[in-house]
Design a protein that fits this description.
749 residues; alpha/beta; Rossmann fold; Beta-Lactamase; Alpha-Beta Plaits; 8-stranded mixed β-barrel; binds ligand C2E; binds calcium ion
Length: 749
């Protein structure tokens, strides 16, 4: 029965010679015990004491080694050794401890229980060794009666069993964590359900045979099969009611009803996954009846973990929805629209149109009527647009009051979009007339990025808002070129400001009769790195649109004031320094303080400064404008209306606003020889006189014009004939030269 050279397993009385072959099946059905002892009688005694015993439902299986070397060979092959009963002889105690070390470290058997048997009580290893090698028990052979030996084995096997259970839980938990990560990566609900099935069968180490069902309606029975495998594959997508009745269906229904895990008598298992009051899943998985891997605690962890995943997926899909949805008007948002345009344009879809529809004067309505009214207006416009379009056309809200439309040209006609609101809309009982403007682009044959197409349509929309309000305008390449050039100029201007490429020049203003220098107009210049100039007519509008003008304007004010201070110090200063102010600056609430600060810093008074504003200010809210201008004039600052006659059609503002001077635009002055221009110039001069305003003509290029202006009783002027705009350092010399010349030249009138 015992081998001299090789260990043999005796499985509860039956003997097998091939230990390796027995390794796997035996590990699940028996507790393996290795007896190491040089004395064959000890082996026989051990066997006779323990043979035929069954512990915790499993029989004991023994293997026998008669030497350390033999034991080592066996240990390397036995991964599921429950216990080693080891003889510690008097003379070789240290070599036996080597074997213990081998068990723990070389063979890597951490859970195997070790019991030492010795002939003499004095051969007990010290406490530290017992602890270090996790030695379970220590007995003298004399002590070990049959009953004591059995009791010792029971204790050791129980302890081994518990250690293995902890191990199994640990690796199951690790698997749960890993499978959670892979479940999170799944995309659609069906993929998730299928992955749940895969992961559960992997965790339980069973065949992937089962069903995953999700609730569809309110009713308890209203579940349907989202994923299935094995013999259940045919039920995918079916309602649970149509699944062939049987123990699986019973388990699933019970689990769905009780919202808990249900263990079937025949080995099946129904798991409930999901949080209370949220969408849940019930999973049936086929588990063999004698399956030992079902640790209920692990299953609870799995259930809780997968439930959290399911919950998070719900959150994710809601997040996804909110990332692509505009809740205010219940339409897709810009991100969704651009995504769809991308999809559409990627394939080069011609025959499609991308239109942007904007509500005219929306921000003014919002300001006057309040945000609630604005929101309701947006909602109503969204519904009108929606009603005018077939379902195949995509309608989205892209920004505050801009809607995007994408569809076939057969279904989307820009003109009709604008006409979708024919009558005033009734908003909270208030009738509100709505006008829309549309910019659109036809999708090209060649693939383009969606965002670029939206940009093109935006350019067309902006142009339409500026020049064709209430109408539609198709994008043309030229618009894009201009818009891109403006964008480029904007970024160049930003850099130019940082690199101090901007500076001021000053153009003298004379009294046309007495030739006295009355003022200087500060004018901005931009000299690029290569020495070329960008005309202010080009970069000032860009600065105004980008808001750069506010900072730039402040710099102009300060610089002009500091030049004025230098001229005063040199005794060559005129009465006033005129500074151009754009409407954007005037609207800045800090403007008044800024002007006062520039004056104060340079020790100037209000009368040293004139501000040139254009007729477009008349479009600003009257009360605000009057307040600002009055406050400035109260400081002694004078106000001139620049480019008079070119802008605003109504003249009523001239009476309303506190002004000092009108500047006749150079386009009328230059062509004084033409009767029409002459009439306008004369009219302006008369108007000024009547309103008690002084009049200054700009753009005087020759003496004839000068004389004609004097004849019209226009008091002041500036122009190349008098002087070119010049840099600050040239001013003192010019003023001195001018005074010398003036002494020689007779008065014009
Ligand atoms: P503006 O205020 O009407 O300035 C007068 C413009 O006429 C200046 O052009 C000046 O160089 C030009 N000019 C002067 N004399 C003559 C002449 O005899 N014949 C002709 N044909 N032109 C003459 P500039 O400097 O190119 O400025 C263009 C416009 O840029 C200005 O028109 C003004 O609206 C704006 N601008 C210039 N500097 C500033 C500034 O600092 N701030 C603001 N907001 N705008 C400015
Ligand atoms: Ca001016
Ligand atoms: Ca002007």
């Amino acid at each position: 029965m015992l081998s001299e050279t090789e260990g043999r397993w005796t499985d509860a009385g039956l003997t097998t010679l091939d230990a390796a072959r027995q390794d796997e099946p035996n590990s699940r059905t028996s507790w393996r015990i290795l007896v190491v002892d040089g004395d064959p009688d000890v082996h026989t005694a051990t066997l006779s004491a323990l043979e035929g015993q069954t512990l915790f439902g499993r029989p004991l299986a023994f293997t026998h080694a008669f030497s350390d070397d033999e034991a080592r060979l066996l240990l390397l092959r036995a991964h599921d050794l429950a216990m080693v009963i080891l003889d510690v002889g008097a003379e070789q105690a240290s070599s036996e401890l080597d074997l213990v070390d081998f068990i723990r470290h070389s063979a890597g058997l951490r859970n195997t229980r070790i019991v030492l048997r010795t002939g003499q009580p004095g051969q007990v290893p010290d406490l530290e060794t017992l602890l270090r090698y996790d030695i379970n028990d220590y007995r003298t052979k004399a002590e070990l009666t049959r009953d004591r030996l059995l009791a010792m084995v029971v204790t050791a096997i129980r302890s081994y069993k518990q250690l293995c259970a902890v191990d199994a839980s640990r690796s199951s938990l690790e698997l749960i964590v890993r499978s959670s990560a892979s479940l999170l990566e799944t995309k659609g609900d069906c993929e998730f359900a299928s992955a749940v099935l895969t992961q559960i069968s992997a965790l339980l180490k069973v065949e992937r045979e089962g069903m995953v069902c999700a609730q569809r309606g309110e009713s308890q029975r209203d579940y349907y099969v989202m994923a299935a495998s094995g013999k259940f594959s045919e039920f995918v997508d079916l309602p649970l009611d149509l699944v062939t009745p049987g123990p699986e269906l019973d388990l699933l229904l019970k689990s769905a009803e009780s919202k808990s895990n249900i263990y079937g008598k025949d080995g099946g298992l129904a798991l409930h996954i999901g949080h209370k009051d949220e969408q849940d899943l019930v999973v049936f998985i086929h588990v063999p009846r004698d399956h030992h891997g079902l640790d209920r605690q692990v299953l609870d962890v799995l259930r809780a973990n997968f439930g959290t995943l399911l919950h998070n997926r719900g959150l994710l899909s809601r997040l996804h929805e909110s990332a692509y949805h505009d809740p205010l008007v219940n339409l897709p948002n810009r991100a969704h629209f651009v995504h769809e345009v991308n999809e559409c344009a990627r394939h080069g879809t011609n025959g499609h149109i991308l239109a942007l529809v904007d509500i005219d004067d929306f921000s003014a309505t919002n300001d006057v009527m309040g945000h609630r009214f604005g929101d309701r207006l947006l909602e109503k416009v969204a519904r009108c647009l929606e009603a005018s379009l077939p379902p195949s056309v995509l309608l989205a809200r892209l920004g505050a009051d801009t809607f995007g439309v994408l569809g076939s040209v057969r279904h989307v006609q820009p003109r009709q979009l604008l006409e979708c609101i024919r009558h005033p809309l009734n908003i909270d009982g208030v009738p509100h007339k709505v006008s829309l403007t549309c910019g659109y682009v036809l999708l090209p044959e060649e693939p383009r990025a969606g965002a670029d197409l939206v940009k093109d349509a935006t350019i067309a929309l902006k142009r339409a808002k500026r020049d064709y309000r209430g109408q539609e305008l198709q994008y043309a390449d030229l618009m894009g070129t201009e818009a891109r050039a403006r964008a480029l100029l904007r970024s160049e201007l930003r850099e130019a400001i940082e690199n101090k490429q901007l500076f001021l020049v000053y153009q003298p203003q004379l009294n046309l009769c007495g030739h006295t220098l009355v003022g200087l107009e500060a004018l901005l210049r931009w000299r690029k790195g290569d020495g070329s100039f960008v005309p202010p007519d080009q970069f000032i509008p860009v600065a105004e649109h980008s808001g750069l003008i506010v900072g730039l304007g402040e710099w102009v004010l300060n610089t002009a004031c500091s030049t004025m201070r230098e001229l005063l110090n040199a005794g060559t200063a005129p009465q006033r320094m005129a500074v151009n102010v754009s409407t954007v600056q005037l609207q800045d609430p800090g403007f008044f303080d800024l002007v006062c600060a520039a004056l104060a810093t340079n020790g100037l008074q209000g009368l040293h400064m004139e501000l040139e504003i254009t007729e477009s200010v008349a479009a600003l809210p009257t009360q605000f404008l009057e307040q600002t201008l009055s406050a400035l004039r109260a400081q002694g600052i004078s106000i001139a209306i620049d480019d008079f006659g070119t802008g605003y059609s109504s003249l009523s503002y001239l009476e309303r606003l506190p002004l000092d001077r009108i500047k006749i635009d150079r386009s009328f002055v230059r062509q004084l020889s033409e009767p029409r221009s002459a009439r306008i110039a004369e009219m302006v001069a008369q108007l000024g006189r009547k309103l008690g305003l002084s009049v200054l003509a700009e753009g005087i290029e020759d003496a004839t014009v000068w004389n004609a202006l004097v004849g019209m009783d226009c008091q002041e002027g500036q122009g190349y004939h008098i002087a070119m705009p010049m840099e600050a350092h040239a001013l003192v010399a010019w003023v001195q030269r001018h005074m010398e010349r003036r002494a020689l030249v007779p008065k014009s009138c």
